[in-house]
Design goal:
Layout (H helix, E strand, L loop, with lengths): L2 E6 L2 H13 L7 E6 L10 H11 L5 E5 L3 H12 L6 E4 L3 H13 L4 H9 L3 H7 L11 H8 L10 E6 L8 H12 L4 E6 L5 E2 L5 H5 L8 E7 L3 H13 L13 H11 L4 E4 L2 E8 L15 H9 L1 H18 L6 H14 L2 H14 L3 H19 L1 H21 L14 E5 L4 H4 L7 E6 L7 H8 L4 E3 L11 E5 L4 E4 L3 H8 L20 E6 L2 H6 L6 E5 L13 H14 L4 E5 L29 H4 L1 H18 L2 E6 L5 H11 L7 E5 L2 H5 L1 H7 L2 E4 L1 H9 L17 H17 L3 E3 L10 H6 L4 E4 L4 H9 L3 H13 L3 H13 L1
Parallel strand pairs: 1-2, 1-3, 3-4, 10-11, 11-12, 12-13, 16-17, 16-23, 17-18, 18-19, 19-20, 20-21, 21-22, 22-23
Antiparallel strand pairs: 5-8, 6-7, 6-8, 9-13, 10-14, 14-15
The protein binds phosphoenolpyruvate and magnesium ion.
């Protein structure tokens, strides 16, 4: 085992760095010596002490010498000359703290000097990647880039094993568990590969601690693990037990997340959470598992290569046929974008060069067909991505094709939304907004997710297409083909429901349809508007009085580059056309957090909901905001629309002022901001002095007021807009709006709650914007009460101690 020497100007610094590093290594078996400070206890380095330290830990395996700065390097080099031992010695430029940690861990695992030195040098990777300042030329190759170079070398014959593990320890895979894991795995004759399903980051060899840190794995993250080598199964078993045990870290009682969180759900509630109303019955179809990278370590014997290569062309053909079938079924004009994507991907699958290139890898190198497809299409996707512009958009299609062909080759289901012609209930752990946006193109009749909450964006999208949806903690227990009732009002999923239960869920009170003019019983006008995310649902929402929130970011979730002015103008015109002459409030891109837009993404953040999202992205990308404003203005002119614009995630009056200044040159008469941070609500008067109107985003307002993630089902009671704290913040804004004589709209999901509508009006909200399906019930609820009752209900609800009491208090006032 190698020895380690620390050369530092300060004895205290060396001791502290060492103490920190030794925390990571449970065993005390790496010999470390320190040469720090001058003999009289001052600051400085001394070559003779360095030589003595090297001799102290020298062994035939070698010595790695760390240095702090400046003259420490010279002292170390001189020390090398003065030493008596003959062991190989390397002086490393690795950073002292991270490098020492990495070196101790790797050395403790018995790695040779070169490996330890390499790990130490690479130890800044996690920090660099996290902070986004990886030096050019030293970027960690991602798996796809790295693999082609290694293909020849890694074609071994050992089969791989795979499994999915959920991190339970509260602080995720931070330095200590990463160190433990790297050290443990290094002792097996196996290469373990890990992929974080949330971030997509992959580590080809998990015995490197610094690489493990780049996974950015947090509590609750699912890690895909696969292993190859003689000890593959044992290594995975050990990995599994370490992860299950939380790496020996005590769970924090107040921490909620990941598996622990879900267990809490199971214990606390044996029912689900209604996230989109309605009811439907149908057979369960589970979302297929994502396709993982096929192992790089298998080689086909010569005798099998020809038949394996021959399997490629039919797989491409089957995928093409499936995609074409799907595209042909989407005859409705609303689905023309989805149809265009499917047709383009089918055309790609039709390119015989792809199958031929993959077949060559099979015959020449013995790569299994799935591996060959992974490499060929991966290289193509990389190439397209680096070209930028519309070419880069196609990279996602190529990756999609790759996954589909591999699924066919492996006899698995093609990934993505299931290809069905009959009605089904989709069951999925968590649905990405990009998939949710396409649900309307399938015959899916209801959605069951294992995680999510009423104000999560998946729920919002489900509601916008009228799809009943429930968060059901036991979703994984539902099997393909089970007949289930999804009751999106009660928040229940019933397997094999009785006819009575189905009838009960489907019973809807007779509702008078919304007549197009929102008002209270005594005639006070409250405009009832729709929330839309594009032309499709705008067309379906046209009975609303206008659009109170056009979430423009939903139109561009799949884009790698900022959409062109032409693309944007087309998207905005579709919405304006559906509401010609009526108000359409267009929100500028609200990127970040759970709605990431690749072209506005910055360095990875620990707390994306508190990070650079919404209007904050305009600081780094002012050009994107200006281009969007220009496109909205052009589209509004072309459609003669009454276009209002507003900015998301405003916290200060200064931000509101800046936004207004950027909008006016484009000729917008009505410029506003969203009030979705407590700071903005508290400063509503100052903000209203800058803008023409405000719109309350209660989804985020509740999240930030109660410090509870709006995506977490177990915290849904906190992010409930009926929370008195939220109601009181709304009241502040309502009062400020009345004082300023300016409109106070509300466009969070609370706007579609018929019981809450009178309370919101009583708090000073002048228009409500909601999923179009809620219009009838909200209109009926307001039409049944007088404005004075609304004011009294608002006072009672805001004075209540909690949401349940607030609901009861409002209901009792309104029933009088
Ligand atoms: C809100 O936060 O209430 C809102 C309307 O914006 P989004 O849900 O898109 O974040
Ligand atoms: Mg919001």
């Amino acid at each position: 085992m190698i020895g380690i020497v620390v050369v530092s100007h300060s004895a205290a610094l060396a001791a502290a760095a060492l103490e920190l590093a030794q925390q990571m290594v449970p065993r005390d078996d790496v010999r470390v010596a320190v040469a720090a400070g001058t003999p009289d206890g001052g600051l400085g380095t001394d070559a003779a002490r360095v030589a003595a330290a090297i001799d102290e830990v020298a062994s035939p395996d070698g010595v790695l010498v760390f240095v702090d700065l400046g003259s420490a390097v010279m002292s170390a080099e001189l020390g090398l000359e003065l030493r008596e031992s003959v062991a190989p010695v390397r002086v490393t430029s690795a950073p002292l703290v991270e490098g020492l940690v990495a070196a101790l861990v790797t050395a403790a695992a018995g790695a040779p000097l070169e490996t330890v030195a390499r790990e130490a040098r690479g130890s800044l990777a996690a920090k660099e990647e996290h902070l986004g300042d990886t030096p050019v030329g030293r970027r960690r190759p991602n798996a796809e880039q790295a693999v082609p170079a290694r293909i020849d070398a890694r074609l071994e014959t050992t089969p791989a094993t795979a499994r999915t593990l959920t991190l339970v320890n509260p602080a995720g895979l931070h330095a200590r568990p990463a160190a433990t894991l790297a050290a443990e795995l290094a002792s097996f004759d196996a290469t373990v590969r890990l992929t974080n399903r949330r971030t997509g980051a992959t580590v080809p060899d998990a015995s490197s601690m610094s690489a493990l840190l780049t996974l950015g794995a947090r509590q609750g993250d699912e890690l895909e693990a696969s292993a190859a080598g003689a000890d593959a199964a044992t290594a995975l078993a050990r990995l599994e037990s370490l992860v299950a045990d939380g790496f020996g870290e005590a769970p924090m009682v107040e921490e909620r997340g990941g598996t622990a969180r879900l267990e809490t759900v199971r214990k606390d509630i044996d029912y689900g959470l209604a996230i989109s109303p309605g009811a439907a019955v149908g057979p369960v179809v589970r979302m297929p598992e994502p396709i993982l990278e096929p192992p790089a370590d298998a080689t086909l014997p010569e005798s099998e290569r020809a038949s394996a290569a021959a399997s490629l062309a039919p797989a491409f053909t089957e995928v093409r046929a499936g995609l074409t079938r799907r595209a042909e079924r989407l005859t409705d004009e609303r689905f023309r974008d989805a149809r265009a994507v499917l047709t383009a991907t089918a055309a790609l699958a039709d390119d015989p060069a792809l199958a031929t290139e993959a077949a060559e890898l099979v015959t020449r190198l013995g790569a299994p067909p799935a591996r060959a497809v992974w490499l060929v299409l991966g290289a193509l996707a990389e190439l397209l991505a680096t070209q930028g512009g519309p070419m880069a958009e196609r990279a996602a299609d190529v990756r999609d094709l790759r996954a589909r062909v591999i699924a066919r080759l492996q006899g698995e289901l093609e990934p993505g939304l299931p290809d069905r012609t009959e009605p089904f209930v989709l069951v999925v752990d968590e649905l990405a907004p990009a998939d949710a946006a396409l649900l309307g193109t399938t015959p899916c009749v209801a959605l069951v997710t294992r995680s999510g909450a009423p104000t999560s964006h998946t729920a919002i999208l489900a509601r916008s297409i009228g799809l009943p949806a429930v968060v059901w903690p036991s979703a994984r227990e539902l099997r393909d083909g089970d007949i289930v009732l999804v009751d999106g009002v009660r928040g229940e999923v019933v397997v094999d429901p009785s006819q009575e239960r189905v009838a009960q869920a489907s019973a809807r009170p007779d509702l008078v349809p919304f007549d197009g003019v929102g008002r209270t019983a005594d005639g006070r006008r409250v405009e009832l508007l729709a929330n839309v995310s594009g032309g499709d649902d705008a067309a379906a929402a046209s009975r609303a009085e206008g659009v109170g929130l056009f979430r423009t970011e939903f139109a561009f979730l799949d884009r790698h580059d900022a959409p062109s002015a032409a693309d944007q103008t087309v998207a905005y015109r579709e919405v304006f056309a559906a509401f010609r002459g009526r108000r359409v409030v267009v929100r500028t891109l609200d990127a970040g957090s759970d709605k990431p837009l690749a072209f506005l993404a910055g360095p990875r953040e620990q707390n994306p909901a508190l990070g650079v999202r919404g209007y904050r992205t305009a600081h780094a990308h002012p050009d994107v905001l200006d281009a969007q404003l220009a496109a909205i203005a052009a589209a509004a002119r072309a459609e003669r629309a009454d276009a209002w614009v507003m900015a998301p995630m405003i916290a200060t009056a200064a931000e509101a002022r800046q936004f207004v200044a950027r909008c006016r040159p484009h000729g917008f008469a009505s410029v506003g901001v969203m009030i979705e941070t407590p700071a903005a609500a508290l400063c509503a008067a100052e903000i209203l002095a800058e803008v023409d109107f405000v719109s309350l985003g209660t989804n985020d307002l509740a999240q930030y007021a109660t410090a509870a993630d709006r995506q977490l089902a177990p915290l849904a009671d906190l992010t409930d807009a009926w929370q008195p704290a939220v109601l009181r913040l709304i009241r502040l804004v309502g009062e400020a709006g009345a004082a300023a004589g300016k409109p106070v709209s509300l466009c969070g999901e609370a706007g579609g709650d018929p019981a809450l509508a009178p309370v919101l009006v009583g708090l000073g909200v002048t228009s409500l914007s909601m999923a179009p399906q809620a219009l009838d019930e909200v209109a009926a609820s307001l039409g049944a009460v007088a404005f004075e009752q609304c004011v009294a209900a608002a006072a009672a609800a805001a004075a209540a101690p909690g949401p349940r009491e607030a609901r009861a208090a409002a209901a009792s006032v309104l029933a009088k």
